[in-house]
Amino acid sequence: MSRTTEESGVETRPDSSGPRNRWWTLAVVGTAQLMVVLDATIVNIALPSAQHDLGFSNGNRQWIVTAYSLAFGSLLLLGGRIADLAGRKSVFLVGLAGFAAASAVGGAAGSFAMLVTARAAQGLFGALLAPAALSLLTTAFAEPRERAKAFGIFGAIAGTGGAVGLLLGGILTEYLDWRWCLYVNVAFATLALLGGARFLGGGRPARRPQLDLPGTLLASSGLFCVVYGFSNAESHAWGSPMTWGFLAAGGIVRALFVLWQSRSAHPLLPLRIVLDGNRAGAYTGMLVAGAGMFGVFLFLTYYLQEILGYSPVTTGCAFLPMVAVMVVTSVVTSNRLIPRLGGKPVVPVGMALAGAAMLWMTTLDAGSGYAAQVLPMLLVSGLGLGMVISPSMNFAAYGVGADDAGVASAMVNTSQQIGGSVGTSLLNTLATTAAAHYLTDRRPTPQVLAEAQIHSFSTAYRWSALFFAVGLVLTALLYRRGAPGQRDEHGPVAL
Description:
mainly alpha, Growth Hormone, Chain: A, 18 helices, about 80% helix
Protein backbone atom coordinates (compact mmCIF):
# COMPACT_ATOMS: atom_id res chain seq x y z
CA MET A 1 0.00 0.00 0.00
CA SER A 2 1.57 3.27 -1.07
CA ARG A 3 1.15 6.63 0.50
CA THR A 4 1.86 10.24 -0.51
CA THR A 5 3.69 12.54 1.87
CA GLU A 6 2.41 16.08 1.79
CA GLU A 7 5.73 17.51 2.88
CA SER A 8 7.74 16.05 0.02
CA GLY A 9 5.11 15.71 -2.64
CA VAL A 10 6.55 12.28 -3.45
CA GLU A 11 4.72 8.99 -3.39
CA THR A 12 6.73 6.38 -1.52
CA ARG A 13 6.40 2.77 -0.44
CA PRO A 14 6.97 2.00 3.24
CA ASP A 15 8.75 -1.28 2.55
CA SER A 16 11.43 0.32 0.36
CA SER A 17 11.95 3.85 1.58
CA GLY A 18 11.70 3.67 5.36
CA PRO A 19 14.19 5.41 7.64
CA ARG A 20 16.02 2.13 8.26
CA ASN A 21 17.20 2.15 4.65
CA ARG A 22 18.50 5.71 4.48
CA TRP A 23 22.16 4.71 4.99
CA TRP A 24 21.78 2.03 2.35
CA THR A 25 20.46 4.79 0.10
CA LEU A 26 23.66 6.73 0.75
CA ALA A 27 25.76 3.66 -0.07
CA VAL A 28 23.90 3.08 -3.33
CA VAL A 29 23.91 6.66 -4.62
CA GLY A 30 27.47 7.17 -3.38
CA THR A 31 28.64 4.19 -5.43
CA ALA A 32 26.89 5.56 -8.51
CA GLN A 33 28.29 9.06 -7.96
CA LEU A 34 31.81 7.67 -7.58
CA MET A 35 31.43 5.78 -10.85
CA VAL A 36 30.27 8.88 -12.74
CA VAL A 37 32.90 11.22 -11.31
CA LEU A 38 35.90 8.91 -11.61
CA ASP A 39 34.97 8.13 -15.20
CA ALA A 40 35.97 11.67 -16.13
CA THR A 41 39.62 10.92 -15.20
CA ILE A 42 40.08 7.14 -15.26
CA VAL A 43 40.11 7.09 -19.06
CA ASN A 44 42.83 9.78 -19.18
CA ILE A 45 45.35 7.29 -17.79
CA ALA A 46 44.28 4.69 -20.37
CA LEU A 47 44.40 7.01 -23.40
CA PRO A 48 47.99 6.31 -24.53
CA SER A 49 47.39 2.55 -24.44
CA ALA A 50 44.00 2.86 -26.16
CA GLN A 51 45.51 5.07 -28.86
CA HIS A 52 48.28 2.55 -29.54
CA ASP A 53 45.80 -0.33 -29.61
CA LEU A 54 43.14 1.28 -31.85
CA GLY A 55 45.49 3.42 -33.92
CA PHE A 56 43.73 6.79 -33.80
CA SER A 57 45.56 10.08 -34.25
CA ASN A 58 46.59 12.67 -31.66
CA GLY A 59 44.02 15.03 -33.15
CA ASN A 60 41.23 12.53 -32.51
CA ARG A 61 42.46 11.61 -29.04
CA GLN A 62 40.57 14.42 -27.30
CA TRP A 63 37.22 13.04 -28.50
CA ILE A 64 37.50 10.10 -26.14
CA VAL A 65 37.17 12.63 -23.30
CA THR A 66 35.07 15.24 -25.10
CA ALA A 67 32.34 12.81 -26.23
CA TYR A 68 31.62 11.98 -22.58
CA SER A 69 31.64 15.57 -21.34
CA LEU A 70 29.54 16.83 -24.26
CA ALA A 71 26.72 14.36 -23.68
CA PHE A 72 26.93 14.54 -19.89
CA GLY A 73 27.14 18.31 -19.58
CA SER A 74 24.55 19.20 -22.18
CA LEU A 75 21.88 16.71 -21.04
CA LEU A 76 22.07 17.03 -17.25
CA LEU A 77 19.22 19.51 -16.89
CA LEU A 78 17.02 17.33 -19.08
CA GLY A 79 18.00 14.31 -17.02
CA GLY A 80 17.05 16.12 -13.82
CA ARG A 81 13.64 17.04 -15.17
CA ILE A 82 13.03 13.49 -16.44
CA ALA A 83 13.70 12.30 -12.89
CA ASP A 84 11.06 14.74 -11.65
CA LEU A 85 8.61 13.47 -14.28
CA ALA A 86 9.15 9.71 -14.30
CA GLY A 87 10.33 9.05 -10.76
CA ARG A 88 13.82 9.20 -9.33
CA LYS A 89 14.30 5.53 -8.56
CA SER A 90 13.28 4.31 -12.00
CA VAL A 91 15.35 6.95 -13.80
CA PHE A 92 18.31 6.20 -11.52
CA LEU A 93 18.15 2.47 -12.27
CA VAL A 94 17.73 3.02 -16.03
CA GLY A 95 20.73 5.35 -15.95
CA LEU A 96 22.82 2.75 -14.12
CA ALA A 97 21.87 -0.06 -16.51
CA GLY A 98 22.58 2.10 -19.56
CA PHE A 99 25.90 3.29 -18.14
CA ALA A 100 26.98 -0.30 -17.53
CA ALA A 101 25.98 -1.38 -21.05
CA ALA A 102 27.80 1.57 -22.64
CA SER A 103 30.91 0.83 -20.56
CA ALA A 104 30.90 -2.80 -21.68
CA VAL A 105 30.62 -1.73 -25.33
CA GLY A 106 33.45 0.77 -24.88
CA GLY A 107 35.68 -1.83 -23.25
CA ALA A 108 35.12 -4.19 -26.17
CA ALA A 109 35.56 -1.44 -28.80
CA GLY A 110 37.46 -2.51 -31.87
CA SER A 111 37.57 0.90 -33.49
CA PHE A 112 37.86 4.59 -32.64
CA ALA A 113 34.27 5.28 -33.74
CA MET A 114 32.90 2.52 -31.52
CA LEU A 115 34.81 3.83 -28.51
CA VAL A 116 33.67 7.42 -29.04
CA THR A 117 30.05 6.31 -29.45
CA ALA A 118 30.25 4.31 -26.23
CA ARG A 119 31.72 7.28 -24.37
CA ALA A 120 28.89 9.51 -25.61
CA ALA A 121 26.37 6.90 -24.42
CA GLN A 122 28.06 6.87 -21.02
CA GLY A 123 27.56 10.63 -20.82
CA LEU A 124 23.90 10.32 -21.81
CA PHE A 125 23.06 7.74 -19.15
CA GLY A 126 25.24 9.55 -16.61
CA ALA A 127 23.08 12.63 -17.19
CA LEU A 128 20.09 10.53 -16.13
CA LEU A 129 21.49 8.94 -12.99
CA ALA A 130 23.59 11.79 -11.51
CA PRO A 131 20.74 14.26 -10.72
CA ALA A 132 18.44 11.41 -9.69
CA ALA A 133 21.11 10.22 -7.23
CA LEU A 134 21.41 13.58 -5.47
CA SER A 135 17.66 14.13 -5.28
CA LEU A 136 17.18 10.62 -3.85
CA LEU A 137 19.69 11.46 -1.15
CA THR A 138 18.01 14.81 -0.50
CA THR A 139 14.67 13.15 0.22
CA ALA A 140 16.14 10.24 2.22
CA PHE A 141 17.57 12.25 5.12
CA ALA A 142 15.48 14.61 7.23
CA GLU A 143 17.19 14.64 10.65
CA PRO A 144 19.68 17.55 10.73
CA ARG A 145 22.80 15.79 12.00
CA GLU A 146 22.31 12.69 9.87
CA ARG A 147 21.62 14.78 6.78
CA ALA A 148 24.77 16.80 7.39
CA LYS A 149 26.84 13.64 7.82
CA ALA A 150 25.33 12.04 4.70
CA PHE A 151 26.02 15.08 2.54
CA GLY A 152 29.52 15.36 3.94
CA ILE A 153 30.24 11.82 2.78
CA PHE A 154 28.53 12.38 -0.56
CA GLY A 155 30.42 15.62 -1.12
CA ALA A 156 33.69 13.87 -0.32
CA ILE A 157 32.90 11.22 -2.92
CA ALA A 158 32.12 13.87 -5.52
CA GLY A 159 35.29 15.78 -4.76
CA THR A 160 37.70 12.85 -4.57
CA GLY A 161 36.32 10.80 -7.45
CA GLY A 162 38.78 12.37 -9.87
CA ALA A 163 41.76 11.34 -7.77
CA VAL A 164 40.32 7.85 -7.28
CA GLY A 165 39.97 7.64 -11.07
CA LEU A 166 43.63 8.44 -11.54
CA LEU A 167 44.68 5.77 -9.03
CA LEU A 168 42.31 3.11 -10.32
CA GLY A 169 43.13 3.93 -13.94
CA GLY A 170 46.82 3.57 -13.21
CA ILE A 171 46.39 0.21 -11.50
CA LEU A 172 44.13 -1.23 -14.20
CA THR A 173 46.24 0.05 -17.08
CA GLU A 174 49.55 -1.06 -15.58
CA TYR A 175 48.53 -4.50 -14.36
CA LEU A 176 45.61 -5.49 -16.62
CA ASP A 177 44.64 -3.59 -19.78
CA TRP A 178 43.24 -0.18 -20.70
CA ARG A 179 39.88 -1.80 -21.49
CA TRP A 180 39.38 -2.55 -17.79
CA CYS A 181 39.14 1.20 -17.17
CA LEU A 182 35.73 0.85 -18.84
CA TYR A 183 34.84 -2.67 -17.74
CA VAL A 184 35.24 -1.68 -14.09
CA ASN A 185 32.11 0.47 -14.41
CA VAL A 186 30.06 -2.70 -14.92
CA ALA A 187 31.05 -3.84 -11.44
CA PHE A 188 30.18 -0.47 -9.88
CA ALA A 189 26.86 -0.29 -11.73
CA THR A 190 25.90 -3.86 -10.84
CA LEU A 191 26.45 -3.23 -7.13
CA ALA A 192 24.43 -0.01 -7.29
CA LEU A 193 21.66 -1.67 -9.32
CA LEU A 194 21.24 -4.51 -6.85
CA GLY A 195 21.28 -2.13 -3.89
CA GLY A 196 19.01 0.39 -5.61
CA ALA A 197 16.38 -2.18 -6.51
CA ARG A 198 16.30 -3.35 -2.90
CA PHE A 199 16.68 -0.20 -0.81
CA LEU A 200 15.64 2.90 -2.76
CA GLY A 201 12.18 4.42 -2.44
CA GLY A 202 9.94 4.70 -5.48
CA GLY A 203 10.22 8.47 -5.65
CA ARG A 204 7.22 8.85 -7.95
CA PRO A 205 6.07 12.47 -7.91
CA ALA A 206 2.54 13.04 -6.71
CA ARG A 207 2.32 16.10 -9.00
CA ARG A 208 4.05 15.66 -12.34
CA PRO A 209 5.46 18.89 -13.75
CA GLN A 210 5.05 19.36 -17.48
CA LEU A 211 8.09 19.10 -19.72
CA ASP A 212 9.29 22.42 -21.15
CA LEU A 213 10.28 21.33 -24.67
CA PRO A 214 11.54 24.74 -25.94
CA GLY A 215 13.47 25.24 -22.70
CA THR A 216 14.92 21.73 -22.99
CA LEU A 217 16.15 22.37 -26.54
CA LEU A 218 17.61 25.76 -25.61
CA ALA A 219 19.34 24.45 -22.46
CA SER A 220 20.82 21.38 -24.14
CA SER A 221 21.99 23.20 -27.27
CA GLY A 222 23.42 26.11 -25.25
CA LEU A 223 25.40 23.82 -22.95
CA PHE A 224 26.53 21.75 -25.95
CA CYS A 225 27.90 24.86 -27.68
CA VAL A 226 29.77 25.97 -24.55
CA VAL A 227 31.34 22.58 -23.84
CA TYR A 228 32.14 22.00 -27.53
CA GLY A 229 33.65 25.45 -27.93
CA PHE A 230 35.99 25.05 -24.96
CA SER A 231 36.87 21.52 -26.08
CA ASN A 232 37.87 22.87 -29.49
CA ALA A 233 40.27 25.28 -27.81
CA GLU A 234 42.61 22.33 -27.22
CA SER A 235 42.99 21.57 -30.94
CA HIS A 236 42.13 24.95 -32.52
CA ALA A 237 43.31 28.46 -31.77
CA TRP A 238 41.10 30.68 -29.61
CA GLY A 239 40.65 32.86 -32.69
CA SER A 240 39.23 29.97 -34.71
CA PRO A 241 35.49 30.13 -35.53
CA MET A 242 35.30 26.56 -34.24
CA THR A 243 36.17 27.94 -30.82
CA TRP A 244 34.82 31.45 -30.44
CA GLY A 245 31.93 30.79 -32.80
CA PHE A 246 30.53 28.00 -30.66
CA LEU A 247 31.22 29.93 -27.44
CA ALA A 248 29.38 32.97 -28.79
CA ALA A 249 26.50 30.80 -29.99
CA GLY A 250 26.36 29.15 -26.57
CA GLY A 251 26.17 32.54 -24.86
CA ILE A 252 23.35 33.70 -27.12
CA VAL A 253 21.36 30.49 -26.73
CA ARG A 254 21.78 30.55 -22.97
CA ALA A 255 20.51 34.15 -22.88
CA LEU A 256 17.48 33.04 -24.88
CA PHE A 257 17.02 30.19 -22.43
CA VAL A 258 16.93 32.58 -19.46
CA LEU A 259 14.43 34.80 -21.31
CA TRP A 260 12.21 31.84 -22.08
CA GLN A 261 12.38 30.55 -18.49
CA SER A 262 11.13 33.90 -17.22
CA ARG A 263 8.05 33.61 -19.47
CA SER A 264 7.32 29.89 -19.61
CA ALA A 265 4.36 28.55 -17.67
CA HIS A 266 6.26 25.33 -16.93
CA PRO A 267 9.97 26.22 -17.02
CA LEU A 268 12.65 23.55 -17.21
CA LEU A 269 14.74 25.49 -14.68
CA PRO A 270 12.56 27.82 -12.62
CA LEU A 271 14.56 30.98 -12.02
CA ARG A 272 13.63 30.92 -8.33
CA ILE A 273 16.03 27.99 -7.98
CA VAL A 274 19.13 29.85 -9.15
CA LEU A 275 18.13 33.25 -7.72
CA ASP A 276 18.33 31.95 -4.15
CA GLY A 277 21.63 33.20 -2.72
CA ASN A 278 22.74 29.97 -1.07
CA ARG A 279 21.91 27.82 -4.08
CA ALA A 280 23.57 30.31 -6.44
CA GLY A 281 26.63 30.16 -4.19
CA ALA A 282 26.54 26.35 -4.32
CA TYR A 283 26.43 26.27 -8.11
CA THR A 284 29.19 28.88 -8.35
CA GLY A 285 31.32 26.94 -5.87
CA MET A 286 31.04 23.74 -7.91
CA LEU A 287 31.78 25.60 -11.15
CA VAL A 288 34.98 27.10 -9.73
CA ALA A 289 36.03 23.90 -7.96
CA GLY A 290 35.49 21.90 -11.15
CA ALA A 291 37.71 24.29 -13.11
CA GLY A 292 40.37 24.76 -10.45
CA MET A 293 40.73 21.10 -9.47
CA PHE A 294 42.23 20.31 -12.85
CA GLY A 295 45.24 22.34 -11.78
CA VAL A 296 45.83 19.55 -9.27
CA PHE A 297 44.64 16.40 -10.99
CA LEU A 298 45.81 17.10 -14.54
CA PHE A 299 49.04 19.06 -14.34
CA LEU A 300 50.33 17.63 -11.08
CA THR A 301 49.79 14.18 -12.60
CA TYR A 302 52.03 15.13 -15.53
CA TYR A 303 54.57 16.66 -13.13
CA LEU A 304 54.79 13.52 -11.00
CA GLN A 305 55.12 11.18 -13.99
CA GLU A 306 57.21 13.20 -16.44
CA ILE A 307 59.40 15.27 -14.10
CA LEU A 308 59.72 13.07 -11.01
CA GLY A 309 59.43 9.81 -12.95
CA TYR A 310 56.55 8.24 -11.01
CA SER A 311 54.64 5.27 -12.45
CA PRO A 312 50.85 5.56 -12.99
CA VAL A 313 50.18 3.56 -9.82
CA THR A 314 52.61 5.59 -7.71
CA THR A 315 51.08 8.78 -9.08
CA GLY A 316 47.62 7.66 -8.03
CA CYS A 317 48.89 6.72 -4.57
CA ALA A 318 50.48 10.17 -4.24
CA PHE A 319 46.98 11.70 -4.28
CA LEU A 320 45.60 9.47 -1.50
CA PRO A 321 46.53 11.84 1.38
CA MET A 322 44.65 14.62 -0.39
CA VAL A 323 41.66 12.29 -0.77
CA ALA A 324 41.75 11.45 2.94
CA VAL A 325 41.84 15.12 3.94
CA MET A 326 38.94 15.92 1.60
CA VAL A 327 36.83 13.13 3.09
CA VAL A 328 37.43 14.24 6.68
CA THR A 329 37.01 17.91 5.86
CA SER A 330 33.79 17.31 3.94
CA VAL A 331 32.21 15.42 6.83
CA VAL A 332 33.33 17.94 9.45
CA THR A 333 32.23 20.88 7.31
CA SER A 334 28.73 19.51 6.70
CA ASN A 335 28.25 18.14 10.21
CA ARG A 336 29.81 20.90 12.31
CA LEU A 337 30.54 24.12 10.44
CA ILE A 338 27.60 24.63 8.06
CA PRO A 339 24.84 24.05 10.68
CA ARG A 340 26.51 26.64 12.94
CA LEU A 341 27.92 29.20 10.52
CA GLY A 342 26.24 28.70 7.16
CA GLY A 343 27.99 28.85 3.83
CA LYS A 344 29.23 32.44 3.87
CA PRO A 345 32.37 32.13 5.99
CA VAL A 346 33.09 28.47 5.25
CA VAL A 347 33.09 28.32 1.44
CA PRO A 348 35.10 31.54 0.85
CA VAL A 349 37.73 30.30 3.33
CA GLY A 350 37.87 27.02 1.41
CA MET A 351 38.35 28.98 -1.83
CA ALA A 352 41.20 30.91 -0.22
CA LEU A 353 42.95 27.73 0.97
CA ALA A 354 42.60 26.03 -2.42
CA GLY A 355 43.92 29.14 -4.18
CA ALA A 356 46.85 29.36 -1.77
CA ALA A 357 47.71 25.73 -2.51
CA MET A 358 47.70 26.49 -6.24
CA LEU A 359 50.09 29.41 -5.75
CA TRP A 360 52.30 27.24 -3.55
CA MET A 361 52.54 24.67 -6.36
CA THR A 362 54.19 27.26 -8.61
CA THR A 363 57.36 26.77 -6.51
CA LEU A 364 57.76 23.13 -7.62
CA ASP A 365 60.81 22.37 -9.76
CA ALA A 366 62.78 19.36 -10.97
CA GLY A 367 64.49 18.98 -7.60
CA SER A 368 61.35 19.05 -5.45
CA GLY A 369 60.59 16.05 -3.28
CA TYR A 370 57.22 14.52 -2.50
CA ALA A 371 57.27 14.51 1.31
CA ALA A 372 58.76 17.98 1.81
CA GLN A 373 57.15 19.90 -1.06
CA VAL A 374 54.31 18.08 -2.87
CA LEU A 375 52.53 16.46 0.09
CA PRO A 376 51.92 19.67 2.13
CA MET A 377 50.48 21.35 -0.96
CA LEU A 378 48.12 18.44 -1.56
CA LEU A 379 46.95 18.50 2.07
CA VAL A 380 46.13 22.22 1.94
CA SER A 381 44.38 21.73 -1.40
CA GLY A 382 42.29 18.87 0.00
CA LEU A 383 41.35 20.97 3.03
CA GLY A 384 40.17 23.85 0.85
CA LEU A 385 38.29 21.73 -1.70
CA GLY A 386 36.54 19.80 1.07
CA MET A 387 35.22 23.10 2.44
CA VAL A 388 33.89 24.06 -0.99
CA ILE A 389 32.45 20.89 -2.51
CA SER A 390 30.58 19.46 0.47
CA PRO A 391 28.52 22.64 1.16
CA SER A 392 27.86 22.99 -2.57
CA MET A 393 26.36 19.50 -2.73
CA ASN A 394 24.39 20.19 0.43
CA PHE A 395 22.90 23.53 -0.60
CA ALA A 396 22.24 22.50 -4.23
CA ALA A 397 18.73 21.17 -3.60
CA TYR A 398 18.20 22.60 -0.12
CA GLY A 399 14.82 24.26 0.33
CA VAL A 400 13.35 23.39 -3.08
CA GLY A 401 9.97 21.75 -3.57
CA ALA A 402 9.70 18.09 -4.51
CA ASP A 403 8.72 18.97 -8.09
CA ASP A 404 12.05 20.75 -8.62
CA ALA A 405 14.41 18.49 -6.66
CA GLY A 406 15.69 16.68 -9.76
CA VAL A 407 16.48 19.76 -11.82
CA ALA A 408 17.98 21.57 -8.81
CA SER A 409 20.24 18.58 -8.22
CA ALA A 410 21.13 18.51 -11.91
CA MET A 411 22.34 22.11 -11.74
CA VAL A 412 25.17 21.30 -9.33
CA ASN A 413 26.35 18.44 -11.55
CA THR A 414 26.07 20.72 -14.58
CA SER A 415 28.17 23.34 -12.81
CA GLN A 416 30.88 20.82 -11.97
CA GLN A 417 30.92 19.42 -15.51
CA ILE A 418 31.02 22.82 -17.22
CA GLY A 419 33.71 23.97 -14.79
CA GLY A 420 35.79 20.89 -15.52
CA SER A 421 35.46 21.39 -19.26
CA VAL A 422 36.43 25.05 -19.04
CA GLY A 423 39.32 24.24 -16.73
CA THR A 424 40.66 21.46 -18.94
CA SER A 425 40.62 23.42 -22.20
CA LEU A 426 41.62 26.83 -20.83
CA LEU A 427 44.45 25.60 -18.62
CA ASN A 428 45.74 23.25 -21.33
CA THR A 429 45.83 26.08 -23.85
CA LEU A 430 47.54 28.48 -21.45
CA ALA A 431 50.08 25.86 -20.41
CA THR A 432 50.90 24.94 -24.01
CA THR A 433 51.33 28.59 -24.96
CA ALA A 434 53.59 29.20 -21.96
CA ALA A 435 55.79 26.24 -22.90
CA ALA A 436 56.07 27.46 -26.50
CA HIS A 437 57.07 30.96 -25.37
CA TYR A 438 59.65 29.53 -22.98
CA LEU A 439 61.30 27.58 -25.79
CA THR A 440 61.61 30.65 -28.01
CA ASP A 441 65.31 31.41 -28.65
CA ARG A 442 66.36 28.41 -26.52
CA ARG A 443 67.96 25.19 -27.67
CA PRO A 444 65.55 22.29 -27.05
CA THR A 445 67.91 20.23 -24.91
CA PRO A 446 66.36 17.67 -22.50
CA GLN A 447 66.97 20.02 -19.57
CA VAL A 448 65.38 22.98 -21.35
CA LEU A 449 62.40 20.89 -22.41
CA ALA A 450 61.88 19.82 -18.78
CA GLU A 451 62.14 23.45 -17.66
CA ALA A 452 59.56 24.42 -20.28
CA GLN A 453 57.18 21.77 -18.93
CA ILE A 454 57.60 22.98 -15.36
CA HIS A 455 57.04 26.56 -16.53
CA SER A 456 53.82 25.50 -18.28
CA PHE A 457 52.62 23.70 -15.13
CA SER A 458 53.32 26.80 -13.03
CA THR A 459 51.29 28.89 -15.46
CA ALA A 460 48.35 26.51 -15.05
CA TYR A 461 48.65 26.65 -11.25
CA ARG A 462 48.62 30.48 -11.28
CA TRP A 463 45.49 30.54 -13.39
CA SER A 464 43.87 27.95 -11.12
CA ALA A 465 44.66 30.25 -8.20
CA LEU A 466 42.93 33.08 -10.08
CA PHE A 467 39.85 30.88 -10.54
CA PHE A 468 39.68 30.32 -6.80
CA ALA A 469 40.22 34.03 -6.10
CA VAL A 470 37.22 34.85 -8.28
CA GLY A 471 35.28 32.07 -6.56
CA LEU A 472 36.15 33.54 -3.16
CA VAL A 473 34.65 36.90 -4.11
CA LEU A 474 31.54 35.44 -5.74
CA THR A 475 30.69 32.99 -2.97
CA ALA A 476 31.26 35.66 -0.32
CA LEU A 477 28.73 37.84 -2.13
CA LEU A 478 26.17 35.11 -2.88
CA TYR A 479 25.97 33.06 0.31
CA ARG A 480 23.70 34.45 3.00
CA ARG A 481 24.96 35.09 6.51
CA GLY A 482 24.09 32.74 9.33
CA ALA A 483 23.14 29.11 9.62
CA PRO A 484 20.53 27.81 7.15
CA GLY A 485 16.88 28.05 8.18
CA GLN A 486 14.84 25.09 9.24
CA ARG A 487 11.85 25.64 6.96
CA ASP A 488 11.16 25.96 3.27
CA GLU A 489 8.07 26.56 1.19
CA HIS A 490 6.88 22.96 1.68
CA GLY A 491 7.37 22.66 5.41
CA PRO A 492 10.19 21.71 7.76
CA VAL A 493 13.51 20.86 6.27
CA ALA A 494 16.81 20.23 7.90
CA LEU A 495 20.34 20.69 6.77
